[in-house]
Amino acid sequence: MARDFAPAEQRILNLRKRLEGIPAVIAQAKTNLKHSPKIHTETAIEQTQGAISLVREGLSPLLNQGPQVAKDLGPIQEKTAKALEDYKTWLQKDLLPRSDGDFRLGADKFCKKLRFALASDLSMEEIMQRARADLAQTQKAIYETALPLYKKYFPNADKKALADKKKVTSAVLDKLAEQHPDDNTVVGYAQKIVGEATEFAKQRDLVAVPEKPLEVIVMPEFKRGQAIAYCDPPGPLEQNGKRFFAVAPTPKDWSAQRKESFFKEYNNYMCRDLTRARSDARTLFATGPR
Question: Where are the domains of the chain?
Answer without folding.
Answer: 8-98, 107-176, 186-283
